[in-house]
Amino acid sequence: MYKIFLTIRYLRKRRIAYFAIGAVTLCTAMVLIVSSVMGGFLDKLKLKARGLLGDVIVRGDSARGFPLYQELIDEIKQWPEIVEATPVIVTYGMMKFEDSPSVQTVIVSGIKLEETYRVNAFKSGLFYEQHYPGTTTFAPQQQPVVGFDDQRSARKETPEGTIILPVLPLSLADALAKSRAADTNEDDVYAGTRLNEALAEYNLPLIPGVFARGSAPELSNERPRPGFEGEPRDGAIIGRDLVAKRLRDGSYRRYDLLPRGCVVTLTLLPISDAANVDTPIKYPFRYADDSRTGIYEIDSQQVYVAFEVLQKLLQMDAGETIDGDPIPARASQIQIKVAAGVDATALARRLERHFHLYRNDERFNLTFDEKLLLERTEVVTWEESQAHYIKPVEKERQLVTILFGTISLVAAVLVLCILYMIVLQKTRDIGIVKSIGGSSAGVASIFMLYGVAIGVVGSISGSVLGTLFVVYINDIQDLLVWLNPAWQVWDRSVYSFDEIPNTVRPIEVAFIAVGGIFMATMGSMTAAWRAGSMHPVEALRYE
Amino acid sequence: MSNPLMEAVDLRKTYRMGRVGVEVLRGCSLAIGSGEFLAIMGKSGSGKSTLLHLLGALDVPNQGQVTFHDKPIYAPPTQRRFRPGVLDTFSFWEQSRIRLRRHAFGFVFQFYHLLPELTVLENVLLTRMIGTPWLRWGSRRKKYDERARSIIERVGLTARIKHRPNELSGGERQRVAIARALIHDPQILFADEPTGNLDEDSGGRILELLTGLHGEGQTIVMVTHDASVARAADRTLHLDRGVLATN
Fold first, then answer.
1. Are A533 and B85 a contacting pair at CB < 8 A?
2. What is the ipTM of this complex?
3. Of A12, A83, A383, B25, which shows the fewest CB atoms inside 10 Å?
4. B24-27 CB contacts, 8 Å cutoff, 24+ apart
């Protein structure tokens, strides 16, 4: 009883202990913040990377792809473990918008849109598809333009005359009305377009995205009607950072010069069997939508087009040799979604063994080169395919947490120093307690409990402080930026994610808090041992 | 003395000052009867306090033995440990000495030795707090509290019950120390120069208090260098350079 009583009394009366509590608090908070931010960063990275991939991926090691992908897809779709499988072609190219002088190198992926929607979260990252559901397609399409419709256009009377405001083509307006009903709008969809600036001026609902001829309200008599213009061209989905400018606050400013449906030309390089680069192919598409994963490296490089179109452009489609022998179509990857509860790793190994059996399958009659391409395919899980990307971050997280944990030993040393000092100050008290019946272990336990109490109070306050800091980390950063723009730590125009990760895992908090208590207890042990070992008579005579 | 309460036989104590051993007690033997008021007198450095500490089980003699109710309180000389370690708490001999200090002995020191963080009441209760397992504290707290208040009243400090030691005079502090030593009804009260740090008036009051306690049957062993204080005792022993002589 006296141990707890004296511990509490010493805690309240010895203000120096507050420094030890402060040290434990700061160290606990520091480790928690670092671990949470790094852990959140890792989670977001995994989530974003995961969104683009199937659970299992069949991939070749050659830019020429591998054959028999469709045969494998048709077969494995019968397996109960497989939900969906879709082929992908990946190549490099150059991209130029019709009205822009700049040329960008891009990674071009040929995908089957509907199948891809079923395999991964690609659809949720599409801008126009979110706001105008059902309108994003790779099929040949014209450019949607806003215009003036006597029945639908809003009118505003001003001293200068009647202002008529442009509206979307009817099909898009209907789609937008549906998405608005579903409340899927984002905050950043209106940024920067002249049309929306005009609509905002008259307090009218804004139009997500950029559409041709959508520059200003109409005052003249010339009133082109809303509709679709231009030659039909295949659609392309473009990484958002290629069509919009990411701002420091994480939102996007869309370019008026890049309206939906504008022509974008891709220059591709088909690779022959002999690895010669054939004549570059320029092919015009229309900008059908833009995709955002949240990872800058992807959003600033990727262009998606129809699988069949890209396959044909790269001469990877089925054909015949001069001798009339069949050439099988090729793909670069197969993205596979597996059923819930299936062990993806085991399935990947099984699938790889199964696919390699195709080499010698008499049904297919492959050439030596084709067998080699097939043999060099591998089947991996999405985590394995992103290991080069995720593992270093995982290691960094471990390393930084260990480093900061080691730095936290300072707290243990501080607790030791402060408690040792208190023990010296309390030498006479120790003599008194022993002279009236306190045991050596009892006296030692007073100071052990003191250390534990410092650890508990410090760890709890550190956990609360760290949790609050992590939860409000983005607000804190905004405050810093508001105070001084030069203090921006997380530049959203540079980093992969809009926000500093702010996920706090309760189990991690508990683990770190227990670590803090353990450190403080360890720090108190030497002082406690010293207190317990004091000779009562010497302690009473201590000056 | 037939059937003494405590008996010391041939107590020897040597302190080490670096490589030099200083023999403080050189074979002291004495017996303390139940209800006796014994004064031990001697000059400074004669070994009075050391003898008191050995009798009160606060220190360990190099040789000799102390018995309390005919039971030895120190291990045989070859098994004695002179510096208490934390783990010694669990040894038989250390545990028995802890029990004596908790339940059978009370100490009053020259410099009061009160805990500055605690009030008068808490300082007095501390002895009971140490001697009571924490599971039983809840049920006994009220009883101990009443006992502490009555003793504090007895020493005349009821008005000061919530004061801390630094708010009390020297005499008042010594009275708190006496109250703390009495709360568990010790069989022997050891007083080490209880008036040594007080003025004449305060010292007189403390002595009065001790005499009153002795009158009620309390066994008291008091160390003093003051002959006028020693006169209050039934019997006085003189300690000269570590050797006892009867008055």
1. yes
2. 0.90
3. A12
4. B24/B50, B24/B242, B25/B50, B25/B51, B25/B54, B25/B61, B25/B242, B26/B241, B26/B242, B26/B243, B27/B64, B27/B242, B27/B243
